[in-house]
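Hey, quick one: can you model this chain's 3D structure?
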Amino acid sequence: MVDLSGFDHKSIVDRAKAIILTPKDEWPKIAAETTSQRDILMSYVIPLAAIGPVASFLGGQLFGYGAFGFSYKPGIVAGLATAVITFALGILGMFVVSLIADALAPKFEGTANKLQAFKLVAYSYTASWLAGIFGLIPSLGFFGLLGLYSFYLLYLGATPLMKVPADKSVAYTAVTVVCGIIVMAIIGPITAAVTGAVGYGAMSVASSDDYGGKITLPGGGSLETGKMEDLAKQMENAANGKSPPIAATKIQALLPVTIGSYTRTAVETGGLGPVGSEAEGTYASGAKEIKLKVTDLAAMGALAGLGAAFGVERTREDANSYERTTTVNGQIQNESWNKVDSRGKFGVVVGNRFMIEAEGKAESIDELKAAVASVDQGNLLSLAS
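Sure thing. Here's the predicted structure for all 385 residues.
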């Protein structure tokens, strides 16, 4: 039987919400708890670590995976095998990183403590595990990068749990993450070899350029702890109902009647309750057709700023097609194009809340970008004010 007497929260939901929204208050509480590794594993780690693999499995079965106009649905057996192996190796990786965090603490004037190190890694992984829910809708899979907020959580927990001095915590976080990336670089190919899956390339923290709260990321970009605090506050406001979704009819009013030579032939709206709302227009020009969609991500939109704060980048390219996820002017953009069938997609996050996407068969990617640009971002943002 799992002993939960060491917890001061009623449920896993309370703990997850607290560590995400108010980590500075929550880490000292966690540091004082005496719950064993086994109990934390059974009551917290396993349920949350299963979110990503389960969501990806369900998303693959319901929607399939696809890019550049092609899609496929994996078989149930293959999908289950992938989910189980990904889950198991993820748990293994977390254990290894906790051992690394424990071993590194004394090198940064902290205190080695296996239980505290396990708690530090287990609870800092919360953001990464919760971000796995985006796997339920494969087209939103790149938002899984928002799990990088876990870096910030680890940074905040280093002092209360491992007794690392505040002026050493950034460096401690950077080195721990780099070692963790090495672990994942080993586990990743194992997962791919067994399941045939292809995942994101390794991401790492390259260095700490000062002890003032900034971690430099490879290829440019950095984690600024002050900005992360602002984003955490934004998420807290969203969770408390201060950012209700915009009515789909109001969003629909922003869809243009025409886009260049394209004429709107249909419109569709939908609501997702407190999660968000969307409006989509279909535009045709001869044999070409573009679907322009504007989505209010509502509470989930608050997470988008986290990915932008890390300057996320991902590129995949071959002779006939490419796919890119980048951060431009502080906002995430995603685009893909297949020159064989002249089909692609372009999307941009606006104001860490809305997503504007254009997808379909067009003359070039520029027409899709023009379709996105046809939605007045200023008017869109004013809906949320």
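One thing worth noting: The longest helix spans residues 76-104.
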